[in-house]
Amino acid sequence: MSPAPLLSVRDLRVAFATEAGRLQAVDGVSFDLRPGEVLAIVGESGSGKSVTAQTIIALTRSNNARIEGSVKLGGEELLEASDATMRRLRGERIGMVFQDPMTSLNPVYRIGNQIVEAIRAHQGSVGKEEARQRVVELFEAVGIPDPERRVDAYPHEFSGGMRQRAMIAMALALEPEVLIADEPTTALDVTIQAQILRLLEDLNRERGLATILITHDLGVVAEVADRVLVMYAGKVVEQGTLDEIFYDPQHPYTWGLIGSLTRLDRPRPHRLPQIAGSPPSLLDLPEGCPFRPRCPHEFSKCPQLPGLEARLPDAADHRDRCWLTPERKREKRQVEGQIGLEAPQQVPRP
Amino acid sequence: MSAGGTSQGAPLLEVTDLVKHFPVKRGILIDREVDQVRAVDGVSFTVNRGETLGLVGESGSGKSTACRAVLQLIKPTSGSVRFEGREIAGLGRRQMRPLRREMQMIFQDPYASLNPRKRIGQIVGDPLRRQGVAKGADLRRQVQELLERVGLAGEHYNRFPHEFSGGQRQRIGIARALALKPKLVICDEPVSALDVSIQAQIVNLLDDLQDELGLAYLFVAHDIGVVRHISDRIAVMNVGRIVEQGSADQVCEHPEDDYTKKLLAAVPIPDPRESRERVRSR
Fold it and tell me: What is the ipTM of this complex?
């Protein structure tokens, strides 16, 4: 039915040795990414979402990091690939866009030249003039007006939104199959954010680009994602399609997140539903379910960590880590009124 | 100067035609003023007692500059700022000092706004000490009460900021702002640096404190959803001017200004079906 996965991550575990002790930043993350698909990884600070993405492109390799599991790109194991191989692969097969475009661009070089350099570093046979022409086309594709002239601009001459477009142009320069976007719109104003999200959507549709979108913003997720991974304290606590996550969330953390959103299109509630407490320190995790200390539904089973399993009879890919039965969850979710969205009779399946 | 007095009917804060221009200078030995940045360009609004006015706008709209000019942290170029009927625009530091008790500020970044070398007790107690309100055991008791009031514990008194999470730090910042029992608190992006699951906690805390203490807030943020939730009225700023002002629901549900409409349309709807609907109608 669905095409073979382009990127396949299995039981990825990343630990760092720190002065304060061993820190398990990513603890058993698995997912598949197919061509043309947008997978959103949602979580708060310390959830492991960025470390997951950085490990895929081998940016977390260091003496104090311990990386286990498997990351396969089209069958090739990346965790065992040499640094030279990874250097070639970054850009050529996996493009990256980070949160802050100003710190990702060198302020003393013209933007166009920085992209020309990236192209020529990978494809030595491409001449300067040809590479420059390619940058002009890329600028046009990402919606930078007057591209012929703007390739010679310096980063400070670009606005935040334009810089992020330039970063996306750079990420696409070598026509990668996978794009990793880590909080690509967080530093931008909402009107600019809307433009960038539209651009990412178009690229997905037109080029079949597979995207991993890392964000803390469920509003952004609702606009562009196909599937969602919710992470908490290094673990995936729930995963499913966009509609499954929004209309039938199974983990109390997910429904807390959705419930605490402010909605402009709804009458405002007297109080915002809130999740108590704060995310745990990775150096001092509770036994069992990491969300347990903040969860209003904790019971005798919770000191044991539940597996990430499909618990609903008709949704094999909707998995969660919560001991409650689906019936109990629906019940509690409704009583609590913490869910901002009305639960539909049936979750539509694409 | 003192027309209007401090009668209950008068607005707590009345800002009229506030202007702040920054000079753009160029030159080698002698600077010439070649241009001006009109950061705040004729802004008028009022905040009533116990009320929340939300000020929304994108980066560069002048909302933070407006706040600073209201508090006289920067000197306004022109315009009037009346607090309880009294003109405060242009007052010096010394003249402003007694008024600082009445108007306090909560900052965006809870990591940058607390001195890392001071203990929590000192940070929260500092305004009380400097204004000569309390000292010794009384000061300590008051600080511990404040900490408890914002959801921390009295025994946090001797801890340092690095021992706290972002949300807890913001609570410390709130306790400090409330120490002198102000009438007006200016909140400049108080939740935007916090994790999503913590934002609602802080918004609810600000709500509770307002009910309890009769505070007025000038709540500045770029997140319209949060601003609408907490505000009675909203003013929308764009390039130094207020383009629309009205009750929170009216501005969000029936915006009149084109910029407000554009801003609202850009806010993502955290509901996949509705957002698909919106794409279709685009």
Answer: 0.82
